């Protein structure tokens, strides 16, 4: 690297989005670039740990405690997307205004925005600054070769499958474009041309970086010209810490780790059913509660330990299987350790992650409403049937190779060099 570049990252504390966003920021700092992160107060220490500068939002994204639920999507109604409405749309004007202020304070070469921070991409466009949308999950947008994300569907090459994808894509655009008017109103305020679709904000970005392994995903084929698969970031969340001993070395029973989301998804009842499911199994079970559930109390059998947090990098090398909500970060870290999964998705991108995991033969997908006996059978299968671990280990090679490439850093440096 010859030229020191200046990056403005714009993000929020959505739980699983934080390690990949800040992991990329840290990689750029280590390359000698200047990075500033505009985000919520609750992430101040996490940003400082990366070596980046910190700027805080003064409106909307002002949480001191990141576990406070601002997504409010655990009881979403049909044809609504609360995460889009509450995070992407409603605060977009404030995000744009505060991003614009940050851009006018210091020289910035590239704005790198969590894809939910749509206002920051509009602000960068206003200033003529190169802009990058960061997706910390598999492909979500519809396109040739794949249906819309969020539904847990795989591409289909059949005639019926193509019809299905066209119909679902039209429905997806109709649902997502119900949020278009306030964004076009914002664009008019900034003297920018209006969009015909909300998704233009991503398709017209200079780059759209997808932070997963292409081998795991079902990509748009052919991929849009601005899309790059740059591999996952496998860093633990900054809040995860543990230094004690869980079980004596003499205890050789299989270890199953249960990890169900950093953020609130009304997961208490799911955890209760998982505890009941593993109570009579001849295994050890570690339940990590995370910021959303650590204040809750559970009645635990002798083979289950519940802790507020344990870094995945510390416990996954010792584990035999993982039961999870199928958040992308947990799935990637489990597969990076060659671990089979039982996935119980509860929304967001989790249905897609669970479907892809099952599609690759690296685990099983259950409903989040699954009964304890169904969970018991699924855990037993992924522990006993060797094909699950074998397929997880095949993905492990791809994920570890992708994670080592620093391809996202290269893409950003190359973008800055383009005139």
Question: What does the model show?
Answer:
The protein has helices spanning 18-30, 44-50, 82-89, 92-105, 118-126, 159-176, 180-189, 200-203, 268-278, 290-293, 312-315, 328-336, 350-359, 372-384, 386-403, 407-417; strands at residues 6-10, 34-39, 53-56, 110-114, 130-135, 207-210, 227-229, 255-259, 284-288, 304-307, 321-324, 341-343, 363-365. The protein contains 16 helices and 13 strands. The model has no long low-confidence stretch (mean pLDDT 93). It folds into two domains: 6-229, Glycogen Phosphorylase B (Rossmann fold); 255-401, 3-Layer(aba) Sandwich (Rossmann fold), CATH 3.40.50.2000. By secondary structure, the chain is α/β, with parallel strands linked by helices. It has a seven-stranded parallel sheet, with helices on both faces. It has a six-stranded parallel sheet with strand order 10-9-8-11-12-13, with helices on both faces.
